[in-house]
Amino acid sequence: MDGLHTEGFEFDGAPAFAGAAGPAPLVDPFGRAITYLRVSVTDRCDFRCVYCMAENMTFLPKADILTLEELDRLCSAFVARGVRKLRLTGGEPLVRRGIMTLFASLSRHLRSGRLDELTLTTNGSQLAKYAEEIKAHGVKRINVSLDTLNPEKFRAITRWGSLDKVLDGIDAAQAAGLHVKINAVALKGVNDDEFFHLIEWAHGRGMELTLIEVMPLGEIGAGRLEQYLPLSMVRARLAERYRLEDLDYRSGGPARYVRVAETGGRLGFITPMTHNFCESCNRVRVTCTGTLYMCLGQEDAADLRKPLRASESDAPLLAAIDEAISRKPKGHDFIIDRRHQRPALARHMSVTGG
Ligand code: SAM
Ligand code: SF4
Fold this sequence. Notes:
Blueprint: E1 26-27, E2 33-34, E3 36-40, H1 68-80, E4 85-89, H2 99-112, E5 117-122, H3 127-136, E6 141-145, H4 151-158, H5 163-175, E7 179-186, H6 195-204, E8 208-213, H7 224-227, H8 231-241, E9 244-246, E10 256-260, E11 266-270, E12 283-286, E13 291-293, E14 301-303, H9 305-310, H10 315-325, H11 349-352
Bound molecules: S-adenosylmethionine (SAM) and iron/sulfur cluster.
């Protein structure tokens, strides 16, 4: 826990709080309040999912990566500016050494009421080890990425992962009292014969399932067109067997939900390709090097590491955050078709964490 403060919350010389009314919210040029920060705490991972990474990835040098203390300071600056939800992601967040100390220190914002939610997106491989501790730090809900229940397919998709370990991790998370949501990327010719099984398995265990369209991020050594499966087609196929009832429910993210009448469970669709969700975007993403991406689908970024390291005062950091939000783009321009098989962006999903 060295250097990570677990109590108190101080900013000097910065417009962190606008008096008793609380922090002035971050509002972008399109009037969207930015209340959700996703933080990629490492670019490393113990898997090499085919849609996310190339098999031989070059990872960042250690010196470029923010320390856990710096990540805490960065997250806390956003909380001071009105961010109410923090999600730790990666790479695989649970492979970062000492990551529990970051959960421990950030949990002070839950106790103070400045943060509504601290959460996690994980591949589940380390959950059996950490689930109880994560719960003890105030995390209530986590997302676990799982695209198949078939061990061989799981190995083929993740290249390095073991399905049993992930299933043990999910058991441990539920036993610890964490609310688990499963995220599955829809992959043409890979898991498209399994959606009924995945739905019934997840709903049978009281877990929500969200299907995600594959997005054109990073060079991965395989054609996107081969992987891409529009969820409009999946939904039509599911509707042949199930009664899908549209729900108004929103999780604060881009997913649209239905209730599957036959299972009683909730099913989400994240469709960046077939349905543009940018108009309600409330989020920004920061990488483990302190680069702030104002949009998942655009290159526009701001370097927050420089102001963070330049001064012990948070004033330059807060000013850099304000400046970055003032140029948040309106939306992404993802296209996958025969003429657009190259990545829309050079960076991999593991840089920003989805
Ligand atoms: N390692 C953790 C995990 O897998 O959950 C967190 C990081 S991972 C980059 C976050 C999410 O992004 C996962 O659900 C993963 O399936 C998804 N993802 C990765 N690459 C993607 C892509 N090209 N298109 C759509 N989703 C992607
Ligand atoms: Fe790792 Fe998650 Fe990317 Fe898979 S999707 S390679 S688990 S970061």
